[in-house]
């Protein structure tokens, strides 16, 4: 069976023997490697196995969208580490979002969510945007259809049981507040800590010479990747249950410099769009690099297709856009982070970095039935094979 | 009447109206309260405005327009004694009113209107008996109020999915900014609103080959092009003109707090760089005979409703949106800081609010 090293379903005294059937649905215990401390969870939304399982169903539930055509999983596919492989995502009614779908993986340890919004400090808060947003419409829940959407769940005996179990003692548990809570618990529970690099840290795997050189470059003062991707989550907004103080930096990495004036293209001008402060032009959150090999295309707008190109851009100290309406030399953007400067990387060194980044892929995460679509009867692994043979 | 009342003190970020009315009113007028109804209206110059007929001659270019939406939140309502002392109106608690905040709605889904099924043009509450001469209120939802138990209650930044009415209206939630739209007024001008092309979204077609670095599963398994072929309805009618501009139907004013920042350690919003709440004061106001009118003619006097220079179509409180300066001028708010480090963006400006006036109630409404 699956090895689930990220979790142990807790029935406290006999953890090792308890399977899901024996587990207490109200219980939860994090079972994490020593380098990953338990994450913060809001006091009013504690983790529980029942909430996790309800959240998992709802995450994959298209009936949660206004027109029944989209679920959270439409833009967050497990096999792509919960991204969607698109430049930008598509909502239930066909509208595109301005940004590339961020991964939900290890989001429990992310201080701010989405690409550049310091107001998005909980998954519960962040979820309101895709669920209820009007510009663009993603899930398309609105004042007119929200009752009808709830009735889809109220008329389903399985869901009535699931909600009652996840929110015990509540007289009317089928409500949007609880839908949001359950999905948030599922998302917090989607943990990736079984990559080759994680196993290496625990002394259970060996890196190749190429991967080792890449690791040393990554964490060294030549490539300096670690300044923004140095946490155990390979980002710089890592926080956990016992964090007492947190900074939430955002960075302009010199991707654009429209007409040499420092601007980024609308509607993707980063933190500036929230703060209105010109010095925040083009600043975005440094994403986690866990599973980065399967989460392309890259950057906030999906404008970089491959990891190799990403590394070329950082080696050049930014991107020179040579034609079109976005023309301008991002390398010379006056608002660029002081950390982004040209790096003299050989082709071999670039290959080494890519090799190291690939060690951050967690195959268990991509295939674990614990995170998979509960509405699919066949295991994930078989579906993938089936798809391939279709072609 | 008979709705239960909360005793809430208001804590309005950036405003100096800090009223400890709970204790004051209790001490002086322990029991007898007088019912008071503050009526509101929507007009354009002398015309009444509703969802049916055209509004004549709106904006700098005097264009006819249809009302599309008109809702706003009012908080901190108080009557003013001759001495200048403000006595808060204790609001009846119902689906339109919670704590010291009320939602007014002038769009009832008829005509060209979106909005809500029923109109709501008045605020109901009680005040201690007294001699009142004036009226003050704030357009907007306060960040926090004090509950009866003395604990802070989050209002503007609460989750609308779990918030009590009238903070539960999704159309008035501003999810991305983690708060509420204080004012939502939208009109459809005759001839539409012509604007530069809508912001270019990255094109889907030339993209989505998974990275060569991707695993074979990902490379074979993703196939974004066919992810959901049924999702292809065009989002909304937008006419593309020969010169590359586009014409859309609706001019939108959305006012709310901007530049908000949360604390990841508590999960709460802690500050907003521009509060954008509008304080209003009338020295003379008789609730029995008069009402407060929001005048669309005054609101739109500085903008050409047929033309938009870019950004949001209309003004969505963006400090760099070309349509916001004339609107904020009428709202009596600083769109930006008046000087570097003045820290007064979203605060009342020196010129004052120009969109409200007091007028006699329509004859039919007089008692």
From TrEMBL, chain A:
Classification via PROSITE patterns = CYTC (PS51007)
What NCBIfam families does its record include? MXAN_0977_Heme2
- Predominant place of localization: periplasm
The signal peptide annotation in the UniProt record is 1-23
Q: Which Pfam families match?
A: CCP_MauG
> Any idea where this protein resides?
Periplasm
Please name the source species: Methylocystis borbori
Q: Which InterPro entries does the UniProt record give?
A: Cyt_c-like_dom, Cyt_c-like_dom_sf, Cytochrome_c_Peroxidase/MauG, Di-haem_cyt_c_peroxidsae, MauG/Cytc_peroxidase, MbnH-like
Q: What UniProt keywords apply to this chain's record, in alphabetical order?
A: Heme, Iron, Metal-binding, Oxidoreductase, Periplasm, Signal
Question: Could you tell me what this protein is called?
Answer: MbnH family di-heme enzyme
TrEMBL record, chain B:
Where in this chain does the record put each Copper-binding protein MbnP-like domain?
35-188
Region (Disordered) residue spans: 191-238
**Comp. bias intervals (Low complexity):** 205-219
Stretches with biased composition (Basic and acidic residues): 225-236
Q: Per its record, how is this protein called by name?
A: MbnP family copper-binding protein
Q: Which organism is it from?
A: Methylocystis borbori
